[in-house]
Design a protein that fits this description.
The chain has 16 helices and 17 strands. It has about 475 residues and is of the alpha/beta class. It has 2 domains: about 1-245 and about 455-465, Rossmann fold (3-Layer(aba) Sandwich), CATH 3.40.50.2000; about 265-445, Rossmann fold (3-Layer(aba) Sandwich). Strand 6 (about 130), helix 4 (about 140-145) and strand 7 form a beta-alpha-beta unit. The structure holds adenosine-5'-diphosphate (ADP) and alpha-D-glucopyranose (GLC). Alpha-D-glucopyranose (GLC) binds next to helix 1.
Length: about 475
């Protein structure tokens, strides 16, 4: 079976968040003797593309509205990724030093059209087309409706919703950008008076998945306007929990961290990595270290951090370290806290893959007070590195973290996203840290939890088989 994943991000080529991690791992776990899984993604001007060389496998031109763009399909000259990746190069449009911007309609539409135009030239079409998020959401519609893709009508296709907050809306005034189709069916594109790529994909894809079972349920009542659509399409929707790439995220072999460790050597391993963090960020290694890694957006609850940290840090016996970027006002407030809590708090505002690995390995607790968390990978990375997650029970966090008050519990959970609940959770963490034997037992226990992709990759294969 040939699976073609189409995505805006893929680790290690281009990563903004968890979408990249998923698309960079799932194909590896799907590839076996009977399945071949590959990725098609945009060619951006980023570190990975600068550091590698490519050959062209196809060249053509595409039309989008009245404009014509030349495009090139590229392939790595030397691929060390364990799966094939093809890059859609559209100079001046896709080839930028960023993945997303504020006006991406044409960029991602051109990406989708170039991908399908290229596929028309293939001798054998894919057995499954697997689309990820709204950037590829018009593909299921075009496969079903666009005249020029008539020969694709029978290709089973899947949409995975990684985050329904973002839907890619644009005005019907731009409907001419989409390759022509029977206009009687224009309603398939519409949601709430706009063209909505995510909604169109939910309507047209043969099957729809989300990245955790709880998120699937939550979407029926909270989906940024798509609630009734997801309820009415629920018979083809299911939630499959993401996994993690346990080769990339492995404290025993991780080349980013200062000292590798296993369950047996966790104490010395975490200590060495914590020391590195504390030395770099002027923190005290004896105090419990609470960390956050992520996008500073309201979904992650990060707007509450400045106030919550201020309150939590009144306890001189804790430290907090943050790695992230996003909302400028929040960034500014988080920077300002550094002066006030020197030696107890620090933050790196920006994106740093290596530092994220050192934090997962060196921190004692990882904070995730998310308002929305379709799956969340950070808590699973934290578990693998023996760092206790402190999470708001929602979406994938609810499906992967059990509170210490419950039988076999190993994390700290709270129900709401408020300053008080965040600071109370930090207090619970501090208390647990004071009981060192219990704290140490839990962090060894969590390293044993298996969240590798093996089980979830199988669920996707079962789903592909059911629609193929
Ligand atoms: P989301 O995709 O919503 O941002 P996930 O938990 O699924 O959340 O995945 C986030 C991914 O991005 C993780 O691999 C996390 O380590 C990484 N990440 C987020 N922010 C940063 C940052 N500032 N520096 C390095 N890695 C980051
Ligand atoms: C999205 C979600 C996140 C999820 C990731 C990968 O970015 O916000 O919760 O883990 O996709 O599926």
């Amino acid at each position: 079976m040939n699976i073609t994943h189409i995505s805006a991000e893929c680790y290690p080529v281009a990563k903004v968040g968890g979408l990249a991690d998923v698309v960079g791992a799932l194909p590896k776990y799907q590839n076996n003797s009977s399945i071949s899984s590959q990725v098609i993604m945009p060619y951006y001007d980023v570190k990975f593309t600068q550091a590698n060389t490519f050959t062209s496998v196809f060249k053509s031109e595409l039309s989008i509205g009245d404009l014509t763009y030349k495009f090139n399909i590229l392939k790595l000259k030397k691929n060390n990724l364990d799966f094939d990746v093809f890059f859609v190069d559209i100079p001046n449009l896709l080839f930028k030093d960023y993945v997303y911007s504020f006006s991406d309609t044409e960029r991602f539409l051109a990406f989708q059209i170039a991908t399908l135009d290229w596929m028309l030239s293939w001798d054998k079409y894919p057995d499954i087309i697997h689309c990820h998020d709204h950037h590829t959401g018009l593909i299921p519609f075009m496969l079903q409706e666009s005249f020029k893709y008539e020969s694709f009508r029978k290709i089973p296709n899947i949409l995975t919703i990684h985050n329904a907050q973002y839907q890619g809306w644009f005005s019907h005034d731009n409907v001419n950008l989409i390759p022509s189709f029977n206009f009687d069916n224009v309603g398939l594109l519409d949601w709430g008076g706009n063209i909505n790529p995510l909604a169109a994909a939910i309507k047209c894809a043969w099957s729809v998945t989300t990245v955790s079972p709880s998120y699937m349920e939550e979407l029926k009542t909270s989906a940024n306007g798509l609630e009734s659509l997801l309820s009415s399409e629920s018979s083809k929707c299911s939630g499959i929990l993401n996994g993690i790439d346990s080769n990339v995220w492995n404290p025993e072999t991780d080349s980013y961290i200062v000292k590798n460790y296993s369950k047996k050597t966790i104490a010395s391993g975490k200590k060495a990595n914590k020391k590195e963090l504390c030395d770099t960020f002027n923190l005290d290694i004896e105090k419990p270290l609470f960390a956050f890694i992520g996008r500073l957006v309201d979904e992650k609850g990060s707007d509450l951090f400045p106030e919550a940290f201020k309150i939590a840090l009144k306890n001189p016996n804790i430290s907090i370290l943050l790695l992230g970027s996003g909302n400028k006002e929040v960034e500014r407030k988080l920077e300002a806290l550094k002066k006030e809590f020197k030696g107890q708090y620090n933050a790196f505002i920006g994106y740093d893959e290596k530092l994220s690995h050192i934090i997962y390995s060196g921190a004692d607790f990882l904070l995730m007070p998310s308002r929305v968390e379709p799956c969340g990978l950070n808590q699973m990375y934290a578990l693998r590195y023996g760092t206790i997650p402190i999470v708001r029970s929602i979406g994938g966090l609810k499906d992967t973290v059990t509170d210490i008050s419950e039988e076999h519990g190993f994390g700290i959970c709270h129900d709401n996203v408020t300053v008080t609940e965040i600071t109370t959770a930090i207090k619970r963490g501090t208390k647990l840290y004071e009981k060192q034997p219990e704290f140490k037992k839990i962090r060894t226990q969590i390293m044993k939890i298996d969240h590798s992709w093996d089980a979830s990759a199988k669920q996707y294969i079962n789903l592909y088989n059911s629609i193929n």
